[in-house]
Amino acid sequence: MPFTHDTGEFNIRGSLMAWLDAGLQTNKPDSIASVRLNYDHPEQPLAPPEWSVYFLGSFNDPAPFGGANVGDGKTGGRRYGLLEVDCWATRNTVTWRKQLAQMGDAVTKTYHAAASNGVRVYDFYTSETTPSALAYRIVLDGIEEREVAPDPNPDIERRRLLIHFNWIERV
Amino acid sequence: MAEVRVAMEGTLGWVQQSGSGTSWATASAALSGANMAYVRGFSYNSGLRTVQVANRGIPDHNKVVGKDAINGSFSVAYANTADMPTKLSATGAGASVMMIMLEARMKIPEVALSAGSGIYYQFYGIAPVSCAFAEGDNENTMAFNFIALGMNGPTASGYLG
Questions:
Q1: Whole-model pTM over 0.90
Q2: Neighbour tally for A69: CB within 10 Å
Q3: Which residues of A have a CB under 8 Å from any CB of B?
Q4: Is B137 in Cβ contact with A66 (below 8 Å)?
Q5: Which residues of B touch A68 (CB under 8 A)?
């Protein structure tokens, strides 16, 4: 029996990345039709304008449920996580301010489109290319923009957005 | 010395009471899966009314003159399943109010040769006093306040497991 974990962090990461990619593709600004999401920065070099995404980890809710019971005979608990989405542009492009502004808006639009229902969890353990939908979701808790330090490369401009989320890990 | 118990080691189960009185009364075998999920903050309060009897003005001994009702409360994160006593419409036989029974179990996994055993507290003849819904950022909750006719515990055997 292969190892699977429906609400394990691997599925959560995969589901968030897939959701973000689909959402950003849908909300791609017309002025920068070539923009794409870079999953593997810094292993994959930047090619601005570009989005990049980083999973910053998660932690357990310090207040457990009684008996750690989370329904359907499963035990577990809530976990909170942080996803960083960066928008990158280069000053070599005259319209870099517009690009950055529109890329940031695409992220917040993607976020708010899913804020009500949350992000569905998909089973990447079973298939990484065609994961099946699970009956669990990721709740989006908030999105904020954080200031960034000037890039070592003076050509590069960046916006940094953090998405707060939580889900219930069930075993 | 035994280890102290924490919330994660305890479960709260419920079952509809089918009879009146202050003992465990269900029509048949206890429901399976009666353990509630997403429970937080279970508490209860039971008291004896005692008076002190003095001998020539000096406290001499205590006398129990009555028992107080057992008040308790717990909170459940709202789910779409029957993981909490939302349907409190049926009344127990011989009783005029809807009644449930609760059982709080604390696991004692560190006790040798008694894997799966626990410490149980049972509450009988529970009428729901109030049920308060609250919307939250991460979960909606239903907070129950109850009043019980009687209780038993701590004891080593449970009905709901």
A1: no
A2: 23
A3: 63-73, 78, 139, 141, 166
A4: no
A5: 8
Q: φ and ψ at B3, to 5 degrees?
A: -75, 150
Structure tokens given for A33: 């039709």
CATH class of B7-155: mainly beta
Which residue does chain B place closest to A142, by CA atoms? Answer: B137
| Nearest-Cα residue of chain B relative to residue A63 | B40
Asked whether the beta carbons of B87 and B100 are under 8 A apart, the reply is: no
The whole-angstrom separation of Cα B77 and Cα A69 is 11
Q: List pLDDT tens digits, range B79-134.
A: 866 566 665 545 555 556 777 888 999 888 776 555 557 889 999 888 888 889 89
CA distance A119 to B114: 43
- pLDDT at residue A122, as a whole number: 97
Nearest-Cα distance to chain A for B60, in Å, is: 43
Partner residue opposite B40 with nearest CB, options A65, A73, A166: A65
Chain A residues touching B36 at Cβ < 8 A: 66, 69
Burial class of residue A49 in the structure, from the number of CB atoms within 10 Å of its CB (0-12 exposed, 13-18 middle, 19+ buried) = buried
Instruction: Enter the DSSP assignment of A69.
Output: B
Domain boundaries defined on chain A: 16-148
Q: Do A65 and B37 touch (CB under 8 A)?
A: yes
Q: Which amino acid is at B98?
A: M
**What was the ipTM of the complex prediction?**
0.77
Partner-chain contact A73 B33, CB within 8 Å:
yes
Could you tell me the residue ranges of all domains in chain B? 7-155
CB atoms closer than 10 angstroms to residue A132: 9
